[in-house]
Amino acid sequence: MNLQDIPLGRHAPSIINVVIEAPKGSRKKYRYHAKSRRFRLAYECSMPVPTEYGWIPETTAEDGHFLNAMVVARHSTHPGYICEARPIGILKRKDNDHHVICVSLSDERYAAVQDIFELDVKLLKKIVQFFEPYFELCGWLNHQEASEMIKVAHEKYRARQKTPIARAQTQEMPKDDVTSKSSDETAEAPEVEENADWDDEDDSGEEEDAGSDD
């Protein structure tokens, strides 16, 4: 399965899919390469990721990548895990590369959480502390604003796919029989490479990698 072909979600924007690239508690930040269908270690963070961290498929953010997403969940998973989640808010960044905050749909602990301000304050502080050394942050947005951002990013993605260049790239990409998964799963965990000494040319001229660009 090519993780770039994962759909946005069966009930988007209220329920979406998130492709995990950095599990909760890990210091390792991976990036996904579509041609090789592997995750490669990009760098190591100075502190553990406080939540599951990844991207929202079928979206296009301001920087041209997928929207960033953080999924609050009790347990950690692995790179390539497809998590069904409910967006509850946004952590804003001055550079407009915002982070959509979600809760895992399969975690009963967060079943009643509908908005970012219903999360534990300590967790919100951990999320802020994780990003503060790297980016200038601009506060929080609520779940309605998160839904609107996902809608806009999805429309931008769809418009981008209609361009000749995007169509050509899609035709060149190997296709799988991908359906809209409604549960947290992947058919097979993608291979993960731990060697951090790599560049985008390692995959026979592979184009820019998928996922977030942090």
Overview of this structure, please?
- The chain is an alpha+beta fold and 214 residues long.
- It has one domain: Inorganic pyrophosphatase (Inorganic Pyrophosphatase).
- Helix content is 18%, strand content 27%.
- It has three helices and nine strands; from the N terminus they run E-E-E-E-E-E-E-H-E-H-H-E.
- The strands form two sheets. It has a five-stranded mixed β-barrel. The protein has a three-stranded mixed beta sheet with strand order 2-3-9, with no helix packed on it.
- A hairpin with a 4-residue loop joins strand 2 (28-33) and strand 3 (38-44).
- The model is unreliable at 167-183 and 196-208 (pLDDT under 50).
Ranges where pLDDT stays below 50 over 5 or more residues in a row are 167-183, 196-208
What value does the average pLDDT take?
Answer: 83
Range of strand content: 25-35%
The gyration radius over C-alpha positions equals 16 Å
Intertermini distance: 24 Å
What is the name of the CATH architecture?
Answer: Alpha-Beta Complex
CATH homology superfamily name: Inorganic pyrophosphatase
How many domains?
A: 1
User: Going across the major beta sheet, what is the strand order?
Assistant: 1-4-5-7-6
Helix count, DSSP H or I runs of 4 or more residues: 3
CATH topology: Inorganic Pyrophosphatase
Q: How much helical structure, as a percent, in the residues?
A: 10-25%
Major β-sheet annotation? 5 strands, mixed, barrel
Which structural class fits the helix and strand makeup?
alpha+beta
The secondary-structure element order is EEEEEEEHEHHE
